[in-house]
């Protein structure tokens, strides 16, 4: 597929884009800075400007595209990862404005130009736990996509708003638009640096619902969504199948979630951040585990 990928130069994108290229996709990265990866085409631009995405989707991405003599080839899909990645980087209002307006501009342009597959990055923060003021426990475990989204910060608010935007455009266009509620992204080099501390002090993972997603497996999830047609609008939790701490699910529940009801019986090594829906509907099968890395 020919894919316009926004934010490919970021922490997640710089692993997802190479994975997609390895799978045979043709990827144009639209970001503020280029991505130095073999095979990727780069365009730079600010997604807050409405015309940026429209232009990117309707202009050549590199010199080789001038050789056909048949005009600009259309894109088969848009993958939107570009965003201010958390609170406390800039002002709260700027975080909300940037994330919501960029997402609106991306989806509006893609739908307007007839793109039938749009995948966008939502977040674990939509459940209101990650950036809560004080401790907030989930209403039940494991947390699945039916869990209420009650954000308490500008970043999570922007992601919930983006989900509403996406659902509205899907209703209008009938395109496939899939939102990924991505958990804490871990790059391969971060395992040795971070996970020994998580094993020693599991409380460090409370705000991430004791979950994580390997950046390479995130690429696998995007590819699964690209290959799955006809779902309309859907959101998916995206995480690895195991917890990010060296405790069983029962031990996590006993230590951190006393009084929180189980939605279903959990396997000892099952993540508190359910990926059952992604497995069932798009065939997501993560292969990386922190236990193999350290």
Automatic annotation (TrEMBL):
Entry keywords, A to Z: Isomerase
One Pfam family in the UniProt entry: Epimerase
E.C. number(s) listed in UniProt: 5.1.3.2
Taxonomic superkingdom: Bacteria
InterPro entries documented for this protein: Epimerase_deHydtase, NAD(P)-bd_dom_sf
Residue ranges annotated for the NAD-dependent epimerase/dehydratase domain, each copy included: 3-239
Enzyme class (EC, first level): isomerase
SUPFAM superfamilies given in the database record: NAD(P)-binding Rossmann-fold domains
UniProt entry tagged with the keyword Ion transport: no
Record GO terms (molecular function): UDP-glucose 4-epimerase activity
Transmembrane segments: none
Cross-referenced PANTHER family: NUCLEOSIDE-DIPHOSPHATE-SUGAR EPIMERASE (PTHR43103), PUTATIVE-RELATED (PTHR43103:SF6)
Protein name as annotated: UDP-glucose 4-epimerase
Organism from which the protein derives: Palleronia marisminoris
Gene: galE_1
